[in-house]
Amino acid sequence: xxxxxxxxxxxxxxxxxxxxxxxxxxxxxxxxxxVVLAFTRLLSPAEYGRYSLxxxxxxxxxxxxxxxxxxxIVRFYPIAARNGTTSDLVRTSYIGILVVGLVAxxxxxAVLLFVPLPPRLVPVLWLAVPLLLLRATVSAGQxxxxxxxxxxxxSIVECGQSIxxxxxxxxxxxxxxxxxxxxxxxxxIGAATMLAIGARDFWRAFLAGRFDATLRxxxxxxxxxxxxxxxxxxxxxxxxxxxxxxxAGVQALGIYTVATVLVDRPTSLAGMAITTATFPRVVHIxxxxxxxxxxxxxxxxxxxxxxxxxxxxLGLMLIAPQLAFISVGSAFRTGLVKLLPIVxxxxxxxxxxxxxxxxxxxxxxxxxxMLLAYGPLAVLNLGIDVVLIPRYGVLGAAWxxxxxxxxxxxxxxxxxxxxxPLLLPLADIVRVAVAMIPMVVLARMITLSNPWLHLAVIxxxxxxxxxxxxxxxxxxxxxGMLATRLRRGVxxxxxx
Length: 496
Prior knowledge:
Oligomer: single chain
Number of helices: 18
Largest sheet: none
Radius of gyration: 23 Å
Order of helices and strands: HHHHHHHHHHHHHHHHHH
Structural class: mainly alpha
Helix content: over 70%
């Protein structure tokens, strides 16, 4: 894992792509913080817990059933573009979304009709059905935009869905009452609005294309084991929320969810922004230049991900008390301070697993092996939850998630190397670690009584020191790139 192949990864265009996707990362992350700021003050912990439970159930179904379809679109788009059959890809994909969506909706309705559930939770869960179908359809369009590098349209949809959904939810809560139902209605409004963006173009492509049975078969082979794997992964990531709700109550779930949202939302969006730009590129390289070049590019992608994820998660650990004070209502703060460091460490492991190691399986078309890593640890996590949550509450759930996810990541990396020559240079890992040392020193030195000022100084100081250290350790050839840009700037000024 420490050797460097000769082929150079495509870096400059990649940087531009990532920069283009930044609005789709930053704005939803800011909105997610707004969700916590607003709804932890407008809703009670119990009502926030009901919203969290419904949204978690929706997320599990979306990840298990529809995220794999989006990955299939990205995976097969370069082939369709090369063959001039992108309209066939759109038609076949949307038919798959419709079929899977109707099955999922039918199963959800059956559960709501025949399974005894808390009366105040049932109407919130009913709203999850149309929201699931809307978000699944939007995600299919976003996958096409990702694969075709339609950065502007992708960012508009991603940002609009977050902003409109949040704003509509706040207005409905203020006008109609502080309930989880009104929050879910706001999300439905946001998804429905963004579905209209590009609907005409997709409809034309749908009508112009034909249903491709070969593509359907290839997509099924790709998606079926992947769907099972992501279902198990979702159980590993979100199962603890259901366990907390069942063993500790919806009020404890509300506090637990706030901690995971504050960490997972911005970190997962950062990981998705990098994946959005890098995964289609490495797929294209794999199809056109071969395994060795794809290996080099994937290794560079992994270091780029680590360089973003590690300082972000470390920073969340360092500012936990101040972040809890300014971001949530008083009923949530005490539990949040204890949870944030554990949840941040878990998020780092999850990002490296989902946005780096898992890509090796996708490239090798061996997503079936992922189930061997995810399945046993998901079961183990739920078993540990049964023991720890009644005794230690939400802290027990957090430690169980961190331990099981770390084991899963290690096992997944071992299995991935059997099907794809996974590369993550040790020297670059050390460079990232060294670059973060001043962040810790700075955080220990600063002690300001005003939490807002303390948070601002640490964040600004950490960003500046980390950026300087990245150049100092020359991660990814940053020194050479900056020198080249400076020389070009001097040359342009000299000519002027």
